[in-house]
Every structure is written in C-alpha cells, then in structure tokens.
Amino acid sequence: MPTLLPAELKLWQSVESTVKKILSNYAFQEIRTPLLERTELFQRTIGEQTDVVSKEMYSFLDRKEQSLSLRPEATAGVVRAGIEHGLFHNQTQKFWSMGPMYRYERPQKGRYRQFHQVNMEAFGYEGPGIDAELILLTSRIWRKLGVEDIQLELNSLGTAESRKGYRAILVEYFNDRTDSLDEDSILRLEKNPMRILDSKNPEMADVIHSAPKMNDHLDQESEDHFNGLLEYLDGHRIQYVLNPRLVRGLDYYTKTVFEWTTDKLGAQATVCGGGRYDDLVKQLGGKDVFAIGCAIGFERLVELVELSGKKDQNGHPKIYLVAVGDQAEAKSSELAEMIRDQFEDCVLELNQDGGSFKQQFKRADRAESDIALILGDEEIENDTIGIKLMKEGGDQETISQDKLLESIADKIGV
Ligand code: HAM
Q1: What CATH number should be reported for the domain whose range is 6-159+219-308?
Q2: What is the assigned CATH class of domain 318-408?
Q3: In this predicted model, what pLDDT tens digit does every residue of 95-131 receive, in sequence order?
Q4: Residue 358 CA to ligand 1 centre (angstroms)
Q5: What is the pTM assigned to this prediction?
Q6: Which one in 249, 267, 362, 373 has a CA-CA gap of 20 to 30 Å to 221?
Q7: Long-range residue pairs from 140-145, CB within 8 A, at least 24 positions apart, any chain
C-alpha cells in the first residue's frame, strides 16, 4: 500500500483536476460511498467465484460479529447507496467517484493492495448511446492528458437469457477437457463456468483460447445493442478491437464490456475497464434499472501521463517571500496575506525561521519558485520591495510596495 509523497501528488492533482472537469462536462455528479461495506454486498454483486471476492478481499468481523470488507471496487457501494436513497426512481443518474480500493493481490509495478479508481456509473439508460458516451468520455480523458498508445477492446457478454444457452455449451466443452483445468477451474465449472475464461493460469491459455465464444451465441437483443454501439463508435471514428475473450473479472456484467489497454505498462496493461450491468440493481432489491459504468486505475493513468512527458499541466505560479531582519519578517507576513487574498491560484511560501539572503534564495530555488519577493532593512526603510523572476534569471527590480500587486499580476500574466 504505497504512501503518496508530495512530489508525486503534484502530477496526481493535475490529472485529477483534468479528469473531474471532463466528468462534469458530461454531466456526471460526484457521489462518495463508505470505504467499508458488508462483505455480503460484494459477494452478491462481484460474485463469490471471482478472484476479487474469493481471494482478494480484506474482510473482518466488527464488534457485533458482522463481516465487513474494505471495498475492492466502487460499483457495489454506489448501487447499494442508490437503492437505499431512492435515487433510481423514474430518473436517470450519472455518478462519478474517486478514491482508494483494496485488493489483496500480489503487489508489483502497477498493481497495489491499495490503489485508486476514478469510477463512473450511469443508471436508467437503455440504448447503446450511453455505452458510446462512456467510451467517448474516457477517450477524451486520454486525449486531454496526452496519453497515447492506448487501445479499446470490446466484447458483448449478452443478456442473462442469452448466456444460459452459452453456459451449457461451455460446460460441455470444459467437461470434455477437465485434464487441462486447474483446481479453481474445476470448482468454477459447476458454479460459474464463464469465470474459467478469466483464469490467469498460463497453462490453461490454450484450452481457453479454443473455447466456444460468447459472441457467437448472442441473442438478437444483445446483438442489436452491440451493433448499435459499434455504429456510434464508427461515426465518431473511435478505433476498437473486438476481443471475444474479454469477460472481465467481475460477475455482474451483461451485454457490452470494454477495456482500455496499453503495452506501455508491462504486465498491468488495463488502464480502464467496465461495462453494462442491467440486472444488478434489481438483483440487489432495487427497481429494474439499466446500468453501465467503468473505472480507471488512477496509478496506471498517472504513470501513462508521466511516460507521455507532459507533466504538471496546470501548475500554479509559485512566489517565495524572502525576508531578512525582524521588521522585514513582521512586514512579510502582512504582505503574504495580502498577496494570498489577491491571487488565490498562486502558491505563496513565506520564508520561516530566518536565515541569510543567500540561504533564503537557496530555499526559494529548491521550492521551484517562479518569483522571489525580497524584503530587508533597506526595503523596509524605503517602503519598497525587491522582485526577481527566478526561472528566467535577470536582475532584481526594486519597486514601491504599493505597486506590488500590480507588478505580480503583470509578471504572472493575470
Ligand atoms: P476492474 O477491472 O476490477 O473493474 O478495475 C478497474 C481498473 O482498476 C483496472 O482496469 C485497473 O486499471 C485498476 N486496478 C484494479 N486492480 C488494481 C490494483 N490491484 N492495482 C492498481 N490498479 C488496479 C472494476 O473495478 C469495476 N467496478 C469497473 C466498473 C464500474 N464496472 C462497471 N462500473
């Protein structure tokens, strides 16, 4: 579970603010659900046979012996909250949320036991337009952040109805090949055979590769929906790869599923995954509500942005206030508050705990300041202040203190 240090968080915050702007641009609203939910909620939604629930949850008994789990993903909590607060009654909803998730996985680069997701869910939309909108939204995020080399993989898992027939075909296929299955898969064969397709065991790659494919067994409704989505994507010139083996690691999906993958991040190739889950709200005791969503792995996204070389994109100008001498120190605190009042988007760091001019300039440099303001005895005596552009070199100017705000505005271009 990594600690995020201030140096990395600069880029995180810049990516976060870009993503939030785009979400709000597509009329998604924020929702915040608890980090803890009843374990049963995840068992009933994600599915008991999935790796996430059977192997990766942090679960414990509370003081009343109730089993709780740290959320391994956000969808279950959002659906629970929506039902509990009556948010699905005759209305459409678009929610986003962002925060930490917990999975007891084997940690490696790009895979952590605490990681963050940007999660989006849309409720009440039946047609493939919303499927396309989610894909356009995520694709806009990549574009805006300068992320390239990312490809869209698509599949349809069909309606629950159409899956019944496919399930029988799949069971028959694997039953004839039990020698090639591992222990987990033999267990899943009875309870949830489609899970076998999601196995990461390399020794089973061949038997999975040759298995019958869901998209050869879609019913008309699922096929029409999927073709509708492809038409939207073609219209928007969004490129995609059809991947009949894309089943996703969670049980609640119906019809469209998709993943954005990259070869830039080594083994952890999926940056974003999601799909429709039209049966889930009802299954959890709510109304019959259409639903679709996806989640971006934030660590992976930030890593991609970093690799793209376009770092901090909306960094704020930084001002460092150098003050030497008792009077200058007293005055500098007053000026600092005045500057903060005027330039809310600036970062202003006031030198603390003294030091010589040389030492304080060094600190200003280390803080990557754009502008240094300088106050010493001479400036105090003459009601002036020194101002110096740190990154562009050049000389220090001395100006009257009442011209200070004007001069800063001029230098940072506001
Ligand atoms: P997921 O595919 O399990 O889907 O996770 C979504 C994304 O979270 C992954 O593509 C990956 O980028 C990131 N991720 C997952 N596990 C880790 C990890 N251990 N370390 C770092 N990043 C990770 C879901 O969670 C669904 N709830 C998405 C969704 C929303 N479907 C419908 N609505």
Answers
A1: 3.30.930.10
A2: alpha beta
A3: 999 999 999 999 999 999 999 999 999 999 999 999 9
A4: 49
A5: 0.89
A6: 249
A7: 140/22, 141/18, 141/19, 141/22, 141/296, 141/301, 142/260, 144/18, 144/22, 145/15, 145/18, 145/301, 145/304, 145/305, 145/308, 145/310, 145/313
